[in-house]
Specification:
This protein is mainly alpha-helical. The protein folds into two domains: 18-200 and 267-479, Up-down Bundle (Growth Hormone, Chain: A); 211-266. It is 75% helix and 0% strand. It has helices at residues 18-52, 57-85, 87-107, 111-139, 145-173, 178-181, 183-197, 212-235, 240-260, 276-292, 295-306, 311-316, 319-339, 342-359, 368-395, 402-429, 434-441, 450-479. The longest helix has 35 residues, at 18-52.
Length: 497
């Protein structure tokens, strides 16, 4: 028997031994903590990296964007492979790759090397993200998944707090390389613990092949649109290369959709979207990411450029958002387990829209406590939305397709987040020179004049207004999702090689 199965082991209920599900939660929590810390800690070190590596601003932007691009583009491919080869195998591989990539990033001798190793790190992150939700879904019965995802969500929020604190401490005591080295011991522990305790639960269908043409055309389309959105801020939306990227994305997406209708084992299982709950849960997640991902960045720009705070100080002032989200996430998961996802998820989105209305009152001299109130509301809404929405989507997916279901959800959510970043910066930058926005992005205090500060605040308000509109659309999609049927998934069984 394969070591990583539950065959011949005692079962309690349909979804495996009672103690096993908590072991799964412990492994995925370590992975979430590592990914969450890395998402915030790197930004603080960008100015030091630029000086030490004798690099420029554009290269430093790609230190961030390379990770986001690769971790988004590979989600769908890795989700499909996980359904074929086993989610536990790929999850543990993701831990190892992320750890190796982190060590290589710390050893980088140039900006080019750092960007390449961030690609390695991002591919490991994609393996972790796409499989963690699927593994949790397998291990927990439907009436406990909201709670499990809520507890896992606490880790993401805690990482948002620990990232800037740990980053500031590292930069005050050592150099930027330790920002990456800190992942190594966490990754080694996670890799060892995952290998020891995780077991394959689901049956893998025999004879399925990987849809390489579908994966390739989808990846090219997604890379093209993400490059167009990120580079368009810097080069202008009407430049020929940017327009060519938009055209390439559209063309390859048409090819992808045409091919998927004919492929024997398509990379996307379009039958997933026949389930109303799954369909609208995924759309809600995408629209929420599109509406709200860039809000944190814009507030940090405001705190640094307008109020003159250091990057570390500005990051610490965002703690109310992460703290309230961490408190609310497990509570919302328990609520969703009892009454379903529609009410808490929709209410969370409406609260976040209200938080944006609150933040639109910000001026160049607004007291911090008023800003903190808006951020706390934002965290409350986010904590109410994530766990119920994710639980509803995964409950609506067949167990044999949990990998691709999780991958599709994560891909569209992250695509919305990247688009949000580009859209919000484009709206805000309309009243501010583009080079100034990029300097603020890497935490440079530029000492803005009063007229320019006011222009930025007006631009930020415009971006928030767009986000409010998108957030209300997300709330509408969430509300019409319908009531999820928790009996839809069948019992899980062990599998061998």
């Amino acid at each position: 028997m394969n070591k990583n199965t539950l065959e011949n082991q005692p079962r309690t209920g349909l979804f495996g031994p009672k103690e096993y599900k908590w072991k799964v939660l412990s492994v995925t929590t370590i992975g979430a903590l590592m990914a969450a810390i890395d998402s915030t800690i790197v930004i603080l070190g960008l100015p030091d990296m630029m000086v030490d590596l004798h690099s420029d601003l554009v290269s430093m932007i790609w230190v961030i964007m390379a990770y986001i691009l690769i971790s988004t583009v590979f989600l769908l491919t890795f989700g499909r492979i996980a359904d074929m080869l086993g989610r536990v195998r790929l999850y543990n591989l993701g831990f190892a790759i992320f750890t190796i990539g982190s060590a290589l990033c710390g050893l980088s001798g140039s900006a080019t090397q750092l960007i390449l190793f961030r690609l390695v790190q991002g591919s490991g992150a994609a393996l972790l993200v796409v499989n963690s939700v699927a593994i949790l879904t397998e291990a927990f019965p439907p009436d406990e998944r909201g709670r499990a995802l809520g507890i896992n969500g606490v880790t993401w929020a805690a990482g948002g707090v620990l990232g800037p604190v740990l980053g500031g401490l590292i930069l005050s005591l050592g150099n930027w390389r330790w920002i990456f080295y800190v992942n190594v011991p966490i990754g080694l522990i996670g890799t060892f613990w995952g290998y020891r305790v995780l077991k394959e639960l689901s049956i893998r269908k025999k004879g399925e092949s990987f849809d390489f043409p579908g994966a390739l055309t989808f990846s090219i389309s997604l890379v093209s649109i993400l490059l167009a959105l990120t580079l368009g801020i810097q080069q202008g939306w009407t430049n020929a290369p940017i327009l060519a990227l938009f055209a390439a994305s559209f063309a390859f997406m048409l090819i992808f959709l045409w091919w998927e209708q004919r492929a024997r084992s398509p990379v996307i299982d379009f039958t997933l979207f026949k389930a109303r709950v799954y369909n609208f849960s995924v759309l809600s997640a995408m629209m929420q990411g599109l509406a709200l991902f860039a809000v944190n960045f814009l507030v940090i720009f405001y705190l640094q450029g307008v109020r003159g705070y250091s990057p570390l100080h500005a990051a610490l002032l965002l703690i109310p958002l992460s703290l309230v989200s961490a408190i609310m996430a497990p509570v919302s998961g328990i609520i969703a387990d009892r009454i379903g996802a529609r009410v808490p998820a929709t209410l969370g989105l409406l609260i976040q829209a209200g938080a944006l209305v609150w933040l639109m009152q910000i001026t160049t001299t607004t007291p911090y406590l008023q800003i903190a109130g808006g951020l706390a509301l934002m965290g409350l809404g986010g904590g109410l939305f994530y766990a119920p929405n994710t639980s509803a989507a995964m409950n609506a997916a067949p167990v044999q397709r949990l990998g691709i279901a999780s991958a599709t959800l994560a891909t569209l959510r992250q695509a919305g987040m990247v688009t949000s970043f580009a859209l919000s910066l484009a709206v805000a930058a309309a009243s501010l020179p583009r080079d100034l926005m990029f300097r603020l992005f890497v935490g440079t205090n530029v000492g803005l004049g009063s007229s320019v500060m006011q222009s930025f605040v007006i631009g930020m308000h415009s971006a928030f207004l767009v986000s409010i509109f998108l957030c209300l659309i997300a709330a509408g999609l969430s509300f019409v999702r319908g009531k999820e049927d928790r009996r839809a998934q069948q019992p899980l069984h062990a599998t061998g090689d």
